[in-house]
Write a sequence for this structure.
């Protein structure tokens, strides 16, 4: 029997994040022949609803309110709960992003539901919706089901394949008016310091540096390579502890767990804690002076050499490849 | 200031993970305070030193967790509470833990509750926000700075690299992100003092809860290890040839560029 699934679309800098389309695909799997209802919350988001429908949602519900211009857990919870109250879904999907991680436990608590966080796969097996999620930062995995309340999960960016876009798809876009009140947290200021718009958790390509980059300046060639490939820069704990870069770039068991298509590890030795954060990347390249470095054990391709020689050469080589293409 | 820290005992980050009888094998493993909870303990101590009051560290687990609680006491926390669920709770999830913690905290008149933003074992990050919701207090997750002035709390929150400055009021629950502070190591006098500090042990019965009240809302159906990654090719030849070969492999063989 088909299910009704609501999926929270997430907007950043006026555009839908990729994880929203991945969420629609996950919702489609769960819904089977049921209905996928996309939800958009914000000050001015209605214009993005069509894109979610083109990506596989059947219709969309939009809550627009000035008080939703900035994310707050109270504001977004009131709006999302109003939609859930109206739609009475069988399942709810959100992204395992800063927003989804912050909001979803509150919603689950309000609904008295279980919540499965950080799912990388969703399947329907014998009537159960089964989510696969990493534990111990990807050193192991578990399959999990919700046994009480609404089926509710957050999905990790970059793991579930979005459905193709079909601009001919149409669906109803309805608005719901929600009074947003009693906000107990107020966003005073937002300082953007993320690298050139590519978010580490959603990046398809990551160029990461370790102690081997030696200084803050040492990250410059890595940044150049990342920019050229449309990727993001990451770091090992060693590089962060040595203050070569900000902790927000840290990948590993403490820090972010990433699964890009391509991970280029530069001057990273490959401590077990770092490997936990990146070893599920699709393709791993290691560049390290030390041929014995642990990182070579998980790398698909390795170059033994000085990253300050290799990375600039890679930049030149990729440039000529991209010119040809 | 009445300060509480939610703490979890976790596997040491150095540990390799093995599975025995369908569960994670804990035998012989080293355990630590969840690293993100260490930031919470440190911040709690700093708040107390600045504003006065008392730091109580609370965990839900079994008696093995006493060791991690003593470590927090040695760092400088004043009191510890172990809610021992070994006898009563067979299967638990984030709801279970949050419900137990909230029942414990509900009449404690906490001014501020600190926790790690995520535990490195189960990695869900749900317990903090769930506890705040059950106590009906505001929360801010993944914070990297915290200042309290009167009843006003100003925090900086890490949002995937951006930082948001957020203002809220006591009582509040916050979860720590890396960069919040530099957790101290317990000093030798600290370790000695910790042995005499109060460590209260409770069971869910003491909180007027029974097993049904905290029944998990999710269920693990399988645990498995990822396929081990085979070491790949280390390229050879002149460095510029290696670089050319690598780019070509990424383009033609791996097809990621």
């Amino acid at each position: 029997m088909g299910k009704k699934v609501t999926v929270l679309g997430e907007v950043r800098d006026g555009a839908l994040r990729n994880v929203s389309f991945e969420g629609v695909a996950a919702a489609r799997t769960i819904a089977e022949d049921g209905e996928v209802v996309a939800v958009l919350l914000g000050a001015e988001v209605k214009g993005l609803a069509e894109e979610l429908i083109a990506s596989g949602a059947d219709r969309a519900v939009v809550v627009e309110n000035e008080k939703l211009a900035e994310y707050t857990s109270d504001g977004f919870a009131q709006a999302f709960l109003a939609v859930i109250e109206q739609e009475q879904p069988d399942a709810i999907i959100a992204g395992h992003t800063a927003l989804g991680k912050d909001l979803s436990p509150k919603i689950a608590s309000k609904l008295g539901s279980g919540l499965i966080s950080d799912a990388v796969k969703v399947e329907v097996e014998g009537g159960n919706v089964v989510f696969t999620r990493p534990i111990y930062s990807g050193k192991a995995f578990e399959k999990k089901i919700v046994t009480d309340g609404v089926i509710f999960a957050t999905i990790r960016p970059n793991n579930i394949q979005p459905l193709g876009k079909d601009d001919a798809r149409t669906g109803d876009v309805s608005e719901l008016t929600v009074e947003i009140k009693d906000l107990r947290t107020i966003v005073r200021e937002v300082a953007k310091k993320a690298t050139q718009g590519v978010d580490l958790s959603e990046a398809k390509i990551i160029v990461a540096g370790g102690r081997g980059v030696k200084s803050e300046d040492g990250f410059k060639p890595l940044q150049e390579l990342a920019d050229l490939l449309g990727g993001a820069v990451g770091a090992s704990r060693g590089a962060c502890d040595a203050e070569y870069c900000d902790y927000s770039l840290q990948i590993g068991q403490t820090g972010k767990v990433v699964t890009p298509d391509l991970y280029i590890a530069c001057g990273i030795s490959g401590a077990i804690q770092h490997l936990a954060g990146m070893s599920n990347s699709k393709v791993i390249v290691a560049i390290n002076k030390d041929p014995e470095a642990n990182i070579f054990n998980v790398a698909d391709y390795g170059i033994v050499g000085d990253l300050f020689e290799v990375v600039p050469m890679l930049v030149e080589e990729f440039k000529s490849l991209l010119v040809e293409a | 200031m009445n300060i509480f820290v939610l703490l979890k005992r976790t596997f040491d980050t150095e540990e390799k993970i093995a599975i025995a009888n369908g569960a994670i094998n804990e035998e012989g493993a080293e355990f630590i305070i969840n690293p993100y909870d260490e930031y919470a303990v440190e911040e709690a101590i700093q708040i107390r030193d600045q504003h006065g009051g008392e730091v109580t560290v609370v965990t839900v687990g079994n008696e093995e967790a006493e060791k991690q609680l003593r470590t927090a006491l040695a760092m400088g926390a004043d009191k510890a509470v172990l809610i021992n669920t070994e006898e009563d709770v067979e299967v638990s999830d984030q709801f279970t833990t949050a419900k137990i913690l909230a029942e414990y905290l509900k009449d404690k008149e906490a001014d501020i509750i600190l926790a790690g933003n995520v535990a490195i074992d189960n990695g869900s990050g749900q317990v903090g926000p769930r506890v705040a919701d059950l106590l009906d207090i505001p929360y801010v997750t993944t914070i990297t700075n915290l200042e309290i002035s009167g009843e006003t709390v100003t925090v900086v929150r890490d949002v995937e690299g951006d930082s948001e400055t957020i203002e809220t009021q006591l009582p509040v629950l916050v979860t720590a992100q890396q960069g919040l502070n530099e957790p101290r190591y317990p000093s030798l006098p600290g370790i000695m003092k910790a042995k005499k500090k109060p460590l209260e042990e409770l069971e869910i019965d003491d909180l007027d809860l029974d097993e049904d009240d905290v029944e998990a809302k999710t269920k693990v159906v399988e645990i498995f290890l990822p396929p081990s990654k085979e070491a790949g090719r280390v390229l050879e030849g002149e460095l510029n040839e290696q670089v050319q070969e690598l780019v070509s492999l990424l383009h033609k063989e791996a097809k990621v560029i």
Observations:
- The longest strand of chain B covers residues 139-149.
- Chain B has six helices and 15 strands.
